[in-house]
User: Fold this.
Amino acid sequence: MFDMTCISIYNAKVIRNLDTALIRTFVTVADRASMTAAANALNLTQGAVSQQIKRLEDVLSCSLFERDRRGLRLTRAGERLFGKGKRLLSLNDEIWAEMAGSAVAGRVRLGVPYDLVGTLLAPVLKAYAEAHPQVEISLVCASSPELATALAAGTIDLAIIEERAGPTAGECLLVDRLVWVGARGGSARLKRPLPVSMVADTCAFRPSVLAALGAHGLDWRTVFENGNIDATTATVRSDLAVTTWLASTVPADLDILSSGPDLPALPSFAINLHLPKHGIEPAAREFARYIRDGLVRRPVAA
Assistant:
């Protein structure tokens, strides 16, 4: 007679559960490409972080990181786990918030430079608004120096600020090249004095650009500085002027101009997240997490 018991045992599925604490540690290390930075973010020792990563690798029977000259780099298995791990943590956090009756609500006033709000920040804003529809989001677009002043005065809750790459009082999300930008096949770069269009006279890039032009011995003139990113873009598209933007924010129909005899090299800039010094509300704290997740691992233009 056929043994039905054998069939039941054969068809039974082995259920294994992932430890979300290990996944959270893995995602944090991957975000920062550093065990030390992850340990600081998680309030753990570096040894504890290393042990948790080793445990996760043992559970999954694969290596998740490898080292190169720049630090930690995800393996192929790590890359596959990273995206799914973030989705798992997002769902975990959402369930906890809903079941505990602590869904994020309130108001967040976010300060963003003109050039970032419609480029790098657009997907982050969309994701946060969809996940937390009960939060009222107010955007304040201004130059980075103006945003720093507003944050210190308490008129905004978070600020994304562009600063020369280097030490910062904020949290560095990414570093990008500051580049010259001109019309496709345009000739504005060859005119003298060089016509330069900047969004505002308080633009964070302005001191570095003018210093580079001065060191290069180039005469220049202002075409537009009136706080309107669309007008600046229009002057460049019309080949009336060149401008400077972070490489990852340059519109596809404009050219990144190489530096040389007619244009000086420019320094790199960091996009830094600044939080208020005296406390932060839950809605703003959650927004900061979305900003980190959206920008820290975003590849910059080559």
